[in-house]
Every structure is written in C-alpha cells, then in structure tokens.
Amino acid sequence: MFVERSAGQIRLVRRLFILCGLAPLAGLVAVAAWRHGDTRRGWLEDRIAAALSAPVSIGAVTDSRPGVMVLEDVVVGDTAAGTGPAVRLARVRVEESTDEIRLAIDAWECPPGVAPVLARLLRAWQDGEYRFRRHWVVDCGRLGWGTESSAPALERVRVECVAADRSRAVRIHGVTAGGDGVDVRILRMQEAAGGEVRFEGELRFGAPVPAAVVAGVLGLGRTVGAATVTLQGEARFVWGADGWSGRCSGVADGVPLGNLTAGLPYGVDGGASVAVDHAEIRFGRLVDARFECRAVRGTISRRLVAAAIDWLGCRPVRALSGDADIPYREMAWGCRLGDHGIELVGLGTDASMLADEAGPLVAPPVGVMPADRLAWLVSPPGLPVVPASSWTGVLLPWLPIPTAGHAAPGRVQR
C-alpha cells in the first residue's frame, strides 16, 4: 500500500510540474517566437496595410518595453510593381494607448512624389473614417525633401492629429537648423451629422519649402511646382458652401517660366522670382492682388510680346521684326489686379518691363486695362473672346468682376 501511494504521489507531482511549470514555459516560448517571428510581422503588415490602404513591408519587429514596438526597414507602397511612390523609414517607434497612437521617427526623406500619399492619409483622417478613430502624434528628428530640392531640411518636426466633438485638426510644426519655423494648421468642422462642412487653414513658411511638395498635398500636380521652386510666406483660408476665401503673401523662387507657360500658345523661358505682396480671394474669386515678377537671361516669344501690346496696352520701345524668340537680359514688372482692372508698372531699366543687351524693349501701358484681357492674352490667335484654351477656362472663373462705375486708381508707384 505504501508503494502504491508513493507511485500515485509521484505521478501527481509530475502532472503538477507539467501544468505549472512546463506549460507556462512553453506558452512563453510560443509568445516569444510569435513576437519575433514572421507570424507576428505578417500580422502587423496586414494590420497597418488595412489602416493605410497601401502595401506595407516590415524588416524586423522588437519590443523595447510593454506597449512599445520598434519597427525597422518599413516600406509603405508597392515597390515590387514599380508604380506609385513608396515611403521608406529606417526605424519607427510605435506606442499605442486606447485613444492615441504615437510614432517616433529618427529621420525621413519626403520627396515631392510622396506628398500625395500623405495628403490622402490626412484627408482620410480628417474625414473621420473608421480607420482613424484615435489621435495621432508623429515626432520626426529630421525631415528632408529629397535630392532634387535645395530647400533646407526641417529639424524636430511634430505632426498632431487631434479630434474633439465634431471637429478634427491637423497641426504640423518644424524648424530648420537656423531656427526658421514652418507651421501648418488645418481644422475641419461639421455643424451636425450630415450638416455643412467647413475648413479653416493657416500656413506660415518662415523657411523655404519645396513648391512641388505643397502642390502635391493640394492635388495640383508637379508641373507648376517643379523641384527647383521654393515657397516662403504665409496664407490663411476658409472653405465652405460659398467656396474658397483667404489671403496670402510670400515669395516663390526658382519658378521655371517654361513649365509655367507650357499650355499657352506663346512661351517664355528662364527662371523667375515672384513676390506676392498681397492676394485676396473671396468666395472663389480673386478680388485684389499685388505682385512682382523678375527674371534674368531667358527668351520670350515674339508673338507673346505682340499679344501683350495688343491686349494689355504695353508699349514697344524699339521696333520688333521677325518671328524668332527674343532673348532678354531682364524682365521685371509689377502688377495690381482687382475689380478696377489690371495695372502694370515696369521695374526694369528705365522703368521698362522687358530689356535686352541693347536696352529697353517694352514699356508698361498707360492707364488701367480690363482684367479679362488676361484671358484674351492666353487665347490662341483669332479667338480672344471665348475660353479657347485650357488656361482661359481656368482664368475666367477666378478673375475679378469689374465694378460698375468704379473709378480707375492712379498709377502704381515703384
């Protein structure tokens, strides 16, 4: 009997050891293998891909502490197909809570092609899609603009996506190594479920920012926002049922006039700097603008010069003959555009608008011309009154509406 009881106790101890010792150990080994193996990595790739609506690949996953993951060699985008941009991040620290997701990124290059991807994500978050119900905070140690842009990189960049009641706000803040700040704030508000949606935004570019990135975020493409163009200035805008309203001022440097005028019947070549002293849009239409354009060493179509003389009242200083493009040494002019019309002033040699090596070629008009002459200027020859080109169709809805009986102001002084 003693032997039988001893054998029974031994079996009981063995079972308890297996249940209380080996089973938990096997569970821990299985969890560890899942955390560091391909199964968990694939699960995370699928989860993030579903949230971002884009293919995702992760090189490795580690846990620095409970609730915090470190992802290495992260790629968002289908690189195998070779179509579309891909976001590449060497290391991402992820911290999740019930109402917030925090990402920490050491460094990241954001070329213009990636900007539309980020814009889609931000719009989806602001629309309140089911994928984005939590707050997002992203801290980036350094944000570059790719190899094509000369704009300075941003340091200590923070992106905050915060929701409250029926509003959702996105704020982006960063500084350059020199201390110049870049701030973007976009607020989406909705009166009630299914009610009117209103956007408010404010941009402050204390440092140059690539225009191609801004154009990509706004969905304007990259034709105007070439890699060489940088923007610096500030803007405030509101969008609602009545359309766009807002004001802006700033400078665009390195503007490729060839790209900008590619869709026109006449062309201009060269690099320009455009300084906007003030521009105001009210309910989707430009009401007042003051800006200057300066370019050095380029060519301009002789037919464009003739059209400027015919439709804008510009005055030729010297006779122009032949059909070849005109090489210019200097193009400099200022413009005031509003409900009173369009007023031009020469800012070049001897108050000219255009000059070559021999001297001034074109002088500004005397007085004020109707604003719709700009649409005539970009129309093909012989069709000045109708929107016969893509540019006229774009310009006409935006140009100021003349005010009846409005007295023409005095000439713009330099």
Explain what the structure shows.
The structure is a single chain. This protein has helices at 2-36, 38-52, 115-126, 211-218, 257-260, 302-312, 373-377, 390-395; strands at residues 56-65, 68-76, 87-96, 100-105, 108-109, 135-144, 154-164, 167-175, 181-190, 197-210, 230-240, 243-256, 268-269, 271-282, 285-300, 315-316, 326-338, 341-346, 354-356, 359-363. It is an alpha+beta fold. The protein starts with a helix and ends in a 19-residue tail after the last helix. It is 23% helix and 42% strand. Strand 9 (181-190) and strand 10 (197-210) form a beta hairpin. Helix 3 (115-126) packs across helix 4 (211-218). It is built from eight helices and 20 strands. It has a 20-stranded mixed sheet that branches.
